[in-house]
Amino acid sequence: MNAIAAPRRESRHRAITIAALMTAYLQAVNISIPNAALPHIQGSLSMADDEVGWIFSAYIAASVIVLPMTRWLAGRYGRKILYQASLALFALGLVLVACSTTTLQFIFARIFQGLASGPLAPLSLAILLDLLPSARHARTNLAWGVMALLGICTGPGIGGWLSDYIGWPSIFYISLPLTGFIFLVVGLSLPEKKAEQTPSFDFFGLATISLGMTGLQMMLDRGERLDWFSSKEIWAEAIAAALGFYLFIVHILTAKSHFLDKALFRDRNFVLSAVMFFAFGFVLLPTLALTSPMLEELLAYPVDTTGYMTIPRGVTLVGAVILMSFAPARIDSRLFVMAGIALVVYANWQMLGYSPQMDWRAVAAAGLLQGAGLGILMPALAKTAFGTLDVKLRPEGAALFNLSRLYGSTIGIAVVQIFFHNNTQAMHLALAAHLTPYRMAGFSDGSLSKQSLAALNEMVTGQAALVAVIDQFKILMIAMLVVSPLVLFLRKSPA
């Protein structure tokens, strides 16, 4: 009987492993897959330019809110039930997004999809680590991380091709078969596991930090459209953010127990690494959010080509992460952190040289360099963060560490959208100021037709927008420069 049961158990473990890795890919690819399809989505839903960032931030911010509850939900209802429920709701979210006919419907559907996706990533990794022996945990973490990065990196290419040849709803429908496959494997192969006693959870702490993050996110996303503090809504969101963060800090300092152990904040390496990982997220997704519109709207690249242009960055990012796993343990991880930051800064400095006369090679070269830098930085920061952290604190630390990256991405997207529109308007005024009547001497009657004026205005707007995009790459570069001195305060991690 044991001889028969062993192959079945091995086969079941293999199926669960594949499903868990596919879950990591599925959750990540749906972050970036709309990136190259933005022109089609905007045109179909009449979405304004300042609303584009919501496509990404709505999904990520919603998943960030639910993610900390995963452990409690799994202990209360069982990991298998939670896994399948999340997959079913995620599939419903995919259908709702694809069927959206207005911007509001689309954003609410992305929020719903993000809420459903929140438990998927931590559950899939926890199940992998639970099923496999500890000797394979390092490789398991690496494989899971690579699949998540592949999802983010391949999303724009897949979305660009599908939206150009089939239609933008197909970029969400394509995830349904994979979701169904994972649901089926989980139902057939994953044994149920439920805590004997329901774990306690700090709902007040989660509620206050969620209030603070949501208020800040809404204020940044809506501020430009509502003229900032001349709007009562922005005041309400600012007060909600300040109140939420204040209550959370007081709760952390005064409560005996909460979902973030105070000991986490006493580990200098972990705190500094989490801050730098926030900057990592600040650069990772906003670069995609800026590059695709620049190529499509300003440089007139086809949608599918724009998607393919993200591939070099993804290849070097994933490749660098894999190569870092073979780096000798005796090499100080702080050296890799410095090297990663230096490469990212240099890549963003290269992006400052973008111009209307450039070809695809300039974008590909900068993407290659930035991908390599981010690929070196990610595992190096993880090593410095957890190398000195108590083993008992690692589950909570891993949740906070990943939250810092995800929240960095949502804040980064909001910030670059704000500065992009402000800089576009400022540059348009500066360029238009030089178009005086004395420069019309070349026209026979000294005037321009309405068509010519419209064409001239479009040209000025395009030039202003390109300058504004380049300025946003400068902001991303400055963000990395600001956190770079923190490397000097890191302690050497044990080998």
Automatic annotation (TrEMBL):
Pfam families the record matches: MFS_1
Family indicated by similarity: Belongs to the major facilitator superfamily. EmrB family.
Membrane disposition: Multi-pass membrane protein
Membrane-crossing residue ranges in chain numbering: 52-74, 86-108, 114-132, 144-162, 168-189, 201-219, 234-254, 270-290, 310-328, 335-354, 360-382, 403-420, 465-490
Species classification: Bacteria, Pseudomonadati, Pseudomonadota, Alphaproteobacteria, Rhodospirillales
InterPro entries: EmrB-like, MFS, MFS_dom, MFS_trans_sf
Cellular compartments annotated: Cell membrane
Protein name: DHA2 family efflux MFS transporter permease subunit
Keywords carried by this UniProt record: Cell membrane, Membrane, Transmembrane, Transmembrane helix, Transport
Entry keyword Membrane: yes
Principal location listed in the UniProt entry: membrane
Claim: Cell membrane is one of the keywords in the record: yes
Origin: domain of life: Bacteria
Sequence ranges assigned to domain Major facilitator superfamily (MFS) profile in this UniProt record: 16-495
Source organism per UniProt: Dongia soli
